[in-house]
TrEMBL record:
GO molecular function: acyl-CoA dehydrogenase activity; flavin adenine dinucleotide binding
Protein origin, superkingdom: Bacteria
Coiled-coil segments on the chain, per record: none
Protein name: Acyl-[acyl-carrier-protein] dehydrogenase MbtN
Cofactor dependency: FAD
Domain Acyl-CoA dehydrogenase/oxidase N-terminal: 6-117
Amino acid sequence: MQNDTEFELFRDNYRRFLKEHVAPYFEQWEEDGIIPRELWYKLGENGFLCVDVPEEYGGYGAPIEYSLMLVQETAYAGFSSLAIAIGGQSELVSPYIQNIGSEEQKQYWLPKMVTGEVVTCIAMTEANAGSDLQAIRTQAIAEDDHYIVDGSKTFISNGIHADLIVLVTKTDPQAKAKGISILLVDAKLDGVKKGRALKKIGLHSQDTAELFFDQVKVPKNALLGAEGRGFTYLMQELPRERLCISMTALGSILGAIELTKEYVLVRKAFGQTLSQMQNTRFVLANAYIKAQAAQAFVDQCADLYSKDQLTVTQVAALKCFITDLQCEVMDQLLQLFGGYGYMQEYPISRLFVDARVQKIYGGTNEIMKEIVARELLGK
Ligand SMILES: Cc1cc2nc3c(=O)[nH]c(=O)nc-3n(C[C@H](O)[C@H](O)[C@H](O)COP(=O)(O)OP(=O)(O)OC[C@H]3O[C@@H](n4cnc5c(N)ncnc54)[C@H](O)[C@@H]3O)c2cc1C
């Protein structure tokens, strides 16, 4: 899949998939607080998971634009929870295994991730260590041919459904960054426990869980890359996660503009449609103008990523800019719906609450500014 026609066909297929397999049920999933496991198989069967995985591991070997487009389309259609779920698998976990995994790990996990047989999550955050990742306490102590893992993680996206947990842990608990290692933990192992699905103010159907590890015996061949290199791998792979979050933001902004256009063209006040009032026109025009700038910034970063040139600072700037913009735009567009904007049956209300977390996960926007400032000021 390399040319524009193929890209558009792929996009159309995915839009049809969303219409048929997601739109009629999404409301219910939001009520239930989880996307059903079966959807993962359907996504896999239809070829919409981990599309950039090379053909030898079951994927299409598609360029990153294809993969990111799926996230953007999902968010555009108003299904942010699903965008985050798919992004977790295809944009976060899959690149770790593709780029750092051993041949054995790639052959074992990637084909199952492509088909949806395996759902994955990445578990970094702990109750007392979020932004300050080096402070994590989950530990993996080497013993013969395995590690004994103890600890817990929180706020883990796809945690409930996860079959594979990419676990950020300390193999040397005394050390800071240099003590961090990453393990590919099979969720079926004895001692792995999943907490309840956490209740959130938005992203209701996106499963977010606590995970517990009690004397879990993880074979040494589950180590991703080398021991003590975990922090370096995180720095290497976080740009893709932030690019994915940015793509979700862009999709949501563009989707919200469309929704609002439809509403203001028909809603009347004082004998005219809202679309005839200057404030409405300016708010929408402003959102559109900023979305164009955001699109250019996202495209530039995606292009740099595909050339292996995207820096941590550039993508931190993008993530901060576009998720701040997302929250600002959602607030302003919701206002144009008046009281209806505050009603759950109006999709703009969901876009509004779903947006908020984008400034928090993937590294908070304060941390993003720190990264940018460090480069600007030389530490
Ligand atoms: C819905 C959801 C899904 C998530 N999914 C995942 C997941 O799949 N995997 C995962 O590992 N984690 C996940 N997270 C966790 C997320 O990445 C963390 O919440 C985030 O990194 C912030 O950590 P914290 O919550 O501990 O906040 P803290 O680190 O305690 O930060 C609190 C406040 O202090 C500020 N702050 C902290 N340090 C600094 C500093 N140096 N300078 C200035 N300000 C600072 C922060 O910006 C923030 O405003 C998820 C979170 C949510 C809400």
